[in-house]
Amino acid sequence: MAEHVAPQCFGSAGTQNTGTQNAGAEKAAGSASAPVLAAGIRDFTFHDAHAPALKDAAVSVASGSFTAILGASGSGKSTLGRLLAGWLPPGGHGTLAGYLELSGTRLEFVGGTGDPRIDPAQWGRHVGFVPQDPAAVLSTVRATVAEELAFGLENTGMDRGSMKAAVDNTAGLLGLDGILARDPARLSGGQLRRLAIGCAIIAGPPVLVMDEPFASLDAAGSAGLAALVRNLVKRGTAVVILSQAVEPLLLEAGTWLVLEGGTLTAGGPPSFFGPGSGRLPRAIRRLVAPPASLPSSVATSSRPKQGEPAALELQGLSFGYQEAPVSRRARRRRDPVRRPLVLQDVHLAVHPGEIVAVTGPNGAGKSTLLRHFNGLMRPTAGTVLVRGSDIAGAPVGTTAASVGLVFQHPRDQLFERTVLREVGFGLERLVGPAMAAERAARALQAVGLADAAREHPAELPASAQRLLALATVLARRPAVLALDEPTVALDGAGLAMLDAAVRSAAEAGAAVVLVTHELGYARAAAHRILSLDGGRLVPA
Amino acid sequence: MSSPSLTLPSQERPTARRRLLEILGALAIAATYVYLVLNQPADITGGPGSASALIALTGFLAGAVLLIAAVLPTLPASTLVLIPVALVLNIILGQFVGSTLVPFYLDAIGTVLIAVLAGPAAGAATGALSSIVWSFFNPTVLPFAAGAALIGCLAGLAARYGLFRRFYLAPVAGFITGIIAGVVSAPVAAFVFGGTSGVATGAIVSAFRAMGDTLLAAITKQALLSDPMDKAIVFTIVAVLVYALPGRTRQQFPFIRRHRVLAGTNAAPAGKVDARAGASGQANDPTLNG
Amino acid sequence: MSVSPAGRTLPAPRHRRVNPLTLLAAAGSAAAITTAAADWVLSVAVVAACLGLSAAAGTARRVVPAAAAVLVPLGLSLLVLHGLFFPEGRTVLAEWGPARITAEGLQFAVQRILQLAAVVLALLLFSFSVSVPDLVAALSARGVQGRFAFVLASTLTLLPAIAGRARSIRQAQESRGLVISRGLASRVAAFRLQAVPLVLSLIEDAGTRAAALEARGLGNAGPRTSYREVPDSVLQRAVRVLLVLAALAAVVARVVQAGANG
Q: Do A256 and A394 belong together in one domain?
């Protein structure tokens, strides 16, 4: 099959036409206007589900086009993306009624046993897909970035010379040149996403589908991604981006499709969905408008109680990772070698009722700072005072009664079988059974999950999972509330919930510290904004 | 297979070659066991380094390798990528428990998990692979590959026939699996190692030896004390884990859907499949692969 | 001895020029021949050779502790078992109640330990000297081997990653007020709470990885190529065949001999 994959063809669908097809084929793509990828989904239902995940959704993309599919968390975006990309072959995880059409081959599905079975490998040569979590695409069996890129080509039996050319070409396109010899397991988030895109496009598929590619990318990362998408579209690749927010790049798309509750409700050029049109559901956030225009409602509504002693105080906090000594002998012989400090002489006092936002680029040490609040990380120098007392010797589980920390990956924090049990975990020991039930119910209400009390936490959409993690912490009424990137994966509705919950917690007397790379949200939500730069905390 | 078609052929059946390898693997393991049990009395007095160690090693290892060769190429990618995860669970827990003074192993949680999710064939392959990959750090587990494969296969059969539908049946299935696996693994410990690899289990064997048992008898009795309890615990842990998984995650495994492995999940339209499974026997049935 | 990470990317040591399969054949045949010969002189020689080779290759620091972790409990277990309780023993050296130290028992235990030490050291020497990416590339060419290589390499990659995942789950749960006390019940409960999200996330990740790898042709039946160049030569191929034949010959000779005696 090697001869079918030209190393540098990021080209049009026509060059990738595979010619005669089997039973499902109706026609071969010939004219330039024919869609390279299309789907008509009457119904897609997961095996155990009672309601369809997708219903009445039709998508069609042409070569060299740029399409954005916008939908709130839980709207079925990822399911649609995976179906288009052949990552969710109908029959495997659910049943499809409708058709999928790729490079001139149309496959009809009725949801029965006689349906065609997609060959994911062949499909993958026509459609590249980048999932939300780029780490999940790594093969885990290749030692360097270059070999990881080549994995898909190796499997087609391509000769080494062509592979090297394709790897160099793709690396150049994605700016991976400098890290080709690195171990893929040790890349940063942004590098990992570029590698995942590289793995998807190295074989030159005529279509590229990306699911939430902007999540947790900082400004520099987003700019790089935008340049890449423009480049691919210019070369004739059809690019489809699934997103729950209107990122600036998406304004350049030819078509927007809006997905609501598994159904495509509207479609058209971006201008059709202008801010005044009301055609875009409120749950889809616009990250385009300058956030400075948002009124800082917090600052006027509630004032921190400055007279009271600080709920959280950091005094001269410094932290550096310890370099692992080469051997036990070396450990004994000399002081451990230290890398440059991640945190340097940080001073911070947060009073009850105050909301403080900490911003900074990816990798600035924001999460490291939060982990000091409850003792998950211990400072190299300096003290952490919670309600006036030093937490130095206290176990994390004990400090957690006063400090509620919501992690960047909420899934790690959830472990119960239902949403209600999740929020109620450990509450009885804290406040007694009667109070526990009431507090759990109220916390769920505060984040809008009261109706989901019986569901499995792991089956909630990403936005709801983050809100649930927040509720588990709110239910304990901590004196200090620390949130790590709380806006990531939140749709518009979720963001409003978060905002309200944080505000009412502050009004009830909690000291809130939130770490975010979204300056707009920080401005709207916080009383003051600090920036973590070079390990020092300075007013932004 | 390398046609440019976007679809796969509608039905895939296991090849005759795969069945032959499976039968050969099972035969190699069974024959080795029978030979060792029949010939053991002459052996111990014959001193160390007897041919029995070699026969135990070659027979069991060859059987395990044949099983892997039969099953591994037929597993779907979704099962193949789970196997390394299972091996890591086995190795992490096994190393940890092995380093304590508890006379258990708990080194089969991953294997049993795969068997319940993906069926007996996948379970057997995972068990055998677990021993082989683990021997990368600890070569002494290599000879137990056949026993580990047996555990995976039996766990898959237990799941296939509904023993994980009732919570209290899982430890019972584990107990029985432990008896069988313990008896089969004992000759390896006796002839290859001349004892057991752990201090706690070694003490139990010593006690039986003090009462005058032959080495094989003492090790078999020790295995009968440790293994059934160990596997009952492992099966219970796996049942707890599997029932804690959300529905969609469980239902993505065709083996679970087809055979209604777990309680409270929708039965798939499986009548046809079940009839075929009953007709063509157990371990060779294509549906057992998941 | 500086601690620079660059130390890891120095020019490949000499054993990297050897094909990983040649190393495997050498270790495997050494293990098989030692077991077949069952001669303590040979066992001691193999142990000494392995220690010497690992010292020369600079892997002794990792091989010796790994081997000790396996051999010390095993050795103790065998010494206690056969040293004190060996009903077949005739030459009694000392006796306390049911425990009798016999010369035969001690001899049996020591022989077994030496033989196992030789096998364990030979195989661990291989594990710690081989370049895993090279081994995977050398195995990847065909069906079963390729899939086995996938399982091996993926397990080795996932081991530290999963340990890290377990650690981050524990941290996240401690931040929710989970206090693990020393009691058994508390530990069992904590184990369940941590195992559930760990296993769940591992299965979900595996599902995504499966889809990704299928799309990248993991299931292709045709021939594969390798981006990584693995050193090999006609000489090495011949050596491998010889080693395998020698191991087979030793095993067959032993079994035939035993058959003739018995």
A: no
